[in-house]
Design brief:
globular; alpha/beta; two-stranded antiparallel sheet; 10 strands; about 40% helix; six-stranded mixed beta sheet; Rossmann fold
C-alpha cells in the first residue's frame, strides 16, 4: 500500500510542481542557490489532488490536535491551503502576514483570533523554517496557544529541524525531500546524474553553487 508521503511526492511530480534547474539554479529568499524548486501552489489548480492533500492535513490535525479551535495559514503560500483545511474541519480561519501592514489597521494577523485560542498553523513548504517560525511568534505575541504546525512538504534541512526544536513546536509534514528524491528516482522523473546533483546540494545547501 502506497504511503501518504509517497502519494504526495508522486502528485507533486505529476502536476510538475517539482522543477529541476541545476544549470541555472533558483535563488531562494534566504540567498541559497537551489537546483530544485517545489511549487505547492500548483496543487490548488488540481481539484482531486487539492482535496486529497488538504484532507490528509485535516486528518493529522484531527488526530494530533483534537482540541484545536483555530486554523492559521502562513501568507501567502499557505493561505488557500489553510482555509481549505479549516473548512474541512469546520473551524475558524486566520492568516499571518510576514510583517504588519504599513497602512490601514496595521494588522499582521488577518481574521478573528481570540486571546488564548488553541491554534494549529498550516504551511505549504518548510525550507529553513524561518518564515514559518516568525508566523508562530506573531501568533504567540497575539496571545494564541500554538499547538503545532502541519505542512505539505519539508526539505528536511538540519537547520530547520533544530530551529523547530529550539522553538519547542511540533512539525508534521505530509512528505519530504528524501521521499521525493526516492520516488523521482523510481519513476524516472530525474536522471541518475541529476540525482547526484540533488544529493550534493542536500549535503550543503547554503554553499552549493557558490564560488569563492
Amino acid at each position: 500500500m502506497e504511503t501518504v508521503e509517497k502519494a504526495v511526492a508522486k502528485s507533486l511530480m505529476d502536476i510538475k510542481a517539482v522543477m529541476l534547474r541545476p544549470e541555472n539554479p533558483f535563488v531562494w529568499a534566504s540567498g541559497w542557490n537551489s537546483p530544485i524548486y517545489c511549487d505547492n501552489r500548483r496543487i490548488l489548480s488540481y481539484p482531486e489532488i487539492r482535496e486529497k492533500v488538504c484532507g490528509w492535513m485535516a486528518d493529522i490535525i484531527r488526530k494530533q490536535y483534537p482540541d484545536v479551535e483555530v486554523i492559521a495559514g502562513v501568507a501567502t503560500g499557505a493561505i488557500a491551503h489553510g482555509y481549505l483545511v479549516a473548512h474541512i474541519l469546520g473551524k475558524p480561519f486566520c492568516y499571518v502576514r510576514p510583517k504588519p501592514k504599513d497602512h490601514g489597521t496595521g494588522s499582521q494577523i488577518e481574521g478573528i483570533l481570540e486571546k488564548g485560542a488553541k491554534v494549529v498553523i498550516v504551511e505549504d513548504l518548510i525550507s529553513t523554517g524561518m518564515s514559518s517560525l516568525a508566523a508562530k511568534n506573531a501568533l504567540v505575541n497575539a496571545g494564541a496557544d500554538v499547538m503545532g504546525m502541519v505542512a505539505i512538504f519539508s526539505y528536511n534541512f538540519n537547520q530547520a529541524r533544530k530551529a523547530f526544536e529550539d522553538a519547542n513546536i511540533e512539525l508534521t509534514t505530509l512528505s519530504n525531500y528524501d521521499t521525493l528524491i526516492e520516488v523521482a528516482h523510481e519513476t524516472g522523473y530525474v536522471k541518475d546524474e541529476e540525482i547526484e546533483v540533488l544529493k550534493a546540494w542536500r549535503i550543503s545547501p547554503s554553499t552549493w553553487g557558490k564560488t569563492e
